[in-house]
Amino acid sequence: MQLQKKSKKISAIAQNKNLSIQFSLDGFSFCITDLTTNDVNLFSEYIFEKTIASPELLLEKIMYIFANDKDLQQDFKSVSAIHQNNLATIVPNDFFDRNNLVPYLKYSVKTLATDFITYDNLSSINANTVYIPYVNINNYLFQNFGEFEYMHHASVLIDKLITKIKNSSIKTGFFVNVAPNLMDIIIIENDKLSMYNSFSYSCKEDFIYYILFTAEQLQMNPEEFQLTFLGKIESDSDLYKITYNYIRNINFIESTTCFFNEDDDFSNHSNYILLS
User: Model confidence at 12, in pLDDT bands (50, 70, 90)?
Assistant: First the structure.
């Protein structure tokens, strides 16, 4: 099984440690944190050669990684997992019924009668992320670690961006989180979420279309607003270059951890959800 692994370790692993995992059909990453100091001791990322076709095949990859990566074969004080997929929607509290989750997804996500649907409460915006987690992977993690926490990546991302905006002088934030074949667009205005959506893309033209379409719908001038990238995108990439043809003001999000150095294989904005 071919897997590309990149990793950074900065110190000996502490006794009281937390394992945080993030996975999607395109990759698997994890970090180990010292619970006493909150310092990140280790980050590792596995990049799949191509997008996995199903959660069942993804589980096979993850089982292989756990069986062969000694850093994962330890005792952890706590474990958390982040499901990264586009099987989610945001529902305000005023319209939310936790006992009837199916209708929230049926118009935007192809669901099956057997799908398990759950939600994360987002107290920062008085809303909930309703989503379909990969239950087979949750079951596997439970077999390995017992009780653990899990969330959808949109929940983690929105909470972090809302906090970041509140602690800054920025009034409006246009954020684009980039993953292979998947992009999240998050608009925050006056400390409140204006829009969240996730789009699948297969080429750079799709990518810029969704950005410009979103800006047009919200009547945001590409010559004026600030676009902030995070995730798997760099200034020398085709995605960045085509965006710069249309958007004048672009930057990368500043991470609070600064775990990576300039000479590392990673940039600080590249794993914002898991590390910041």
Answer: low
d(CA 262, CA 251): 17
Confidence of residue 244 (pLDDT cuts 50, 70, 90): very high
56 is written with which tokens?
A: 């069942």
Residues in the chain: 276
Select 3-85+134-147's CATH number: 1.20.120, 2.40.10, 3.30.420, 3.30.2320.
Answer: 3.30.420
CB 172 within 8 A of CB 188: yes
CA dist 249 and 104 (Å) reads 35
How crowded is residue 166: how many other Cβ atoms within 10 Å of its Cβ? 11
Amino acid 14: pLDDT: 67
- CATH number of the domain at 159-275, out of 3.30.420.260, 3.40.50.2000, 1.10.1660.10, 3.40.30.10? 3.30.420.260
- Position 113 scores a pLDDT of 83
Q: Is 72 left (phi over 0), alpha (psi -120 to 50) or beta?
A: alpha
